[in-house]
Design a protein that fits this description.
The protein has 13 helices and no strands. The chain has 301 residues and is mainly α. It has 2 domains: 53 residues; 233 residues, MetI-like (MetI-like fold), CATH 1.10.3720.10. It starts with a helix and ends with a helix.
Length: 301
């Protein structure tokens, strides 16, 4: 009887666990589907004909498949240059941001740093209050950074939010490691380079991706500070192409929407795909660091 009762209870627990697992899987699949559907819709729009888009026949599959939209984007003689320039700009921006973030986060973990709490409070203050758009524009202009790459790098060179994340990760590392290295004669810089940074690769990779995506998707600062075409980042270049297409549409009174040029919706969808694909190619390379970061946090928690 006892064995039979225990077997029945074990079977019930197994059924409950399997039902819970199924419910979790269904929920995750549904959540993933809601994220994938808009992406599939944008792909379908970018490969559909003007007639299909205007008549609203496009759903999740291209109608009257065409690549004219991508030909319109790539037909710009400067597009390849803009793509290469945007990649270099994003890499340079990410390196500068991570260098400044590391240099600020590591000293703030040291209790012997005089005025540490005041410095951290001053940095946090900037998360809630800023000078505003007009003062920022005047500052960039007075510093002579208009139409230079520095106007796209220095104003957002360090995110306080990312700084706090990295500082928290540095603080979670065992102090015994640094104490042992210090006893062996290692300086603070040596401890940072040889111990702290190698152990912090998951968080550094994560924050680097945050910075890279932020710069790659950046548009507003380039619109305000850049007028030279050779300094246009990808987002601003695509904005110029879409604006030119919409202007042509307005000049023709909408009569050419089905004919000679691409409707704005298709062009916008192709622009989204054009700027999203590079990030999608980078993410799998950094995915293992995200997993390592989650596992490290779980173990330390």
């Amino acid at each position: 009887m006892v064995r039979a009762a225990s077997t029945i209870r074990a079977g019930r627990i197994g059924r409950k666990t399997s039902v819970a697992d199924i419910a979790i899987i269904v929920f995750i699949v549904a959540l993933s589907f809601t994220c994938i559907v808009p992406f599939l819709y944008m792909i379908a729009l970018s490969f559909s004909s003007n007639e299909a888009i205007i008549s609203q026949k496009v759903s999740l599959w291209p109608v009257d498949f065409t690549v004219e939209t991508y030909k319109t984007i790539l037909s710009d003689a400067d597009m390849l240059y803009t793509l290469g320039y945007s990649i270099v700009l994003t890499i340079f921006y990410t390196v500068v941001c991570m260098f400044l973030t590391i240099c600020a986060a590591y000293p703030l973990t040291k209790k012997r740093l005089w005025g540490r709490n005041f410095l951290l409070s001053a940095l946090v203050f900037t998360m809630y209050f800023s000078g505003g758009l007009i003062p920022s524009y005047i500052l960039i202009k007075n510093l002579g950074m208009m139409d230079t790459i520095w106007s796209l790098v220095l104003p957002g060179a360090m995110s306080v939010f990312n700084l706090i994340i990295l500082k928290t990760f540095f603080s979670s590392l065992p102090e015994s490691l640094e104490e042992s290295a210090s006893i062996d004669g290692c300086s603070d810089l040596g401890i940072l380079l040889r111990i702290v940074l190698p152990l912090s690769l998951p968080s550094i990779a994560t924050l680097s991706l945050f910075y890279a995506v932020d710069r790659w998707n950046g548009f507003q600062d380039a619109l305000f500070y850049i007028t030279k075409k050779e300094l246009y980042p990808m987002q601003l270049k695509l904005y110029q192409i879409i604006s030119a297409n919409q202007q042509l549409d307005s000049q023709q009174g909408g009569e050419g929407s089905v004919g000679s040029f691409i409707v704005p919706e298709s062009l916008k969808a192709a622009s989204v795909m054009f700027t999203t694909i590079p990030i999608l190619l980078i993410y799998p390379k950094l995915q293992k660091y995200f997993v390592d970061g989650v596992m490290t946090g779980a173990i330390k928690g």
